[in-house]
Amino acid sequence: MPTLRLLTNVEIAPESRPELLARASRQVADLLGKPESYVMVILESGRDLLFAGTSDPSAYLELKSLGLPESRTPEFSRALCGLLAETLAIPPERVYIEFSSPPRHLFGWNNATF
Q1: What's the mean pLDDT in 93-109?
Q2: Which of these CATH numbers, 3.50.50.60, 1.10.580.10, 6.10.140.1580, 3.30.429.10, describes 3-113?
Q3: Active-site residue flag, 92
Q4: Structural domain boundaries in the chain
Q5: Residue range 68-81, pLDDT digits in tens
Q6: I want to staple 94 with a disulfide (CB 3.0 to 4.6 A). Which of 17, 58, 85, 103 is the partner?
Q7: How high is the pLDDT of residue 22?
Q8: pLDDT tens-digit profile of 3-48?
Q9: pLDDT, position 62
Q10: Catalytic-labelled residue, pool 2, 57, 91, 92
Q11: Mean pLDDT, the chain, whole residue set
């Protein structure tokens, strides 16, 4: 159930969105060591977002996963910031990332919970 939500003020051309989604999905699966078939990526571009008093390119990410290893969040942060720098030219200092590991009984899927 790894889920990555990527919210940014950068406008992403429709033709570029599928590749960014695919890269993010692969990266999340690789980072967490989980099958990509369980990964969901939500992309919200062109959003109103002000960070540090400016509307320069920035992003807010949420990475949720059952059993998310807290000790590895610095590694995850570097990798996700690197992806945004490379694909959207968003500097790492303009990215916030919220990591969370919900309890299994509070995350639903397929008519049940995990």
Answers
A1: 95
A2: 3.30.429.10
A3: no
A4: 3-113
A5: 999 999 999 999 99
A6: 58
A7: 98
A8: 999 999 999 999 999 999 999 999 999 999 999 999 999 999 999 9
A9: 98
A10: 2
A11: 97
pLDDT-derived band at 87, boundaries 50, 70, 90: very high
The tokens of 50 are what? Answer: 């002000």
Q: 21 — alpha (psi -120 to 50), left (phi > 0) or beta? A: alpha
Q: Which long-range contacts (C-beta less than 8 Å, at least 24 apart) are formed by 77-84?
A: 79/27, 79/31, 80/4, 80/27, 83/23, 83/24, 83/27, 84/6, 84/8, 84/59
Q: Which residues of 15-47 are buried (b: 16+ CB within 10 A; e: fewer)?
A: eeeeebbeebbebbbebbebeeeebebeeebee
Q: Phi, psi at residue 70, to the nearest 5°?
A: -55, -35
Helix axes 17-32, 73-88, angle to 10 degrees: 160
The SS3 assignment for 61 reads strand
